[in-house]
Design a protein that fits this description.
single chain; mainly alpha; 4 helices; 86% helix; 0% strand; elongated
Amino acid sequence: MSVELPLSALAVTSALHAGFQVAVTTLVYPVLLRDGSDWSRRHGAHSRSIVPLVVLTYGAVLVSMVWVFAAGAVPAGAWVAGGAFALTLLVTAVGAAPLHGRLARGFDPGVARRLLLVDRGRCALAVTAAVAAAVTLVRV
């Protein structure tokens, strides 16, 4: 099996993920985490609306990563993209998700600041994965 099509899928899904993450980091979280006014309603609405997008976006990247690895010889850049994506999942699981859990119990400015920092890390990792996937595709 040729690796070009799976790498194309990885480049597209990684770009989708990076765009999603940049939007969350630069637009969604600054507004959501600005203050605690009407917090329970706003945080609940955010959580209900973003979870399906996260599942679809992360799932698409994961499926394309599996496809690349199943296709055979994996270029170094795909390993970089996969590693960055794996770290994004780890940071989400051990950083962002528990912080959201704490915020679900009530707004805390310190927890909100930590979430903003964790989220910036996720954003950097998502962009790194997208760049690595795109560069890899161009070089194949």
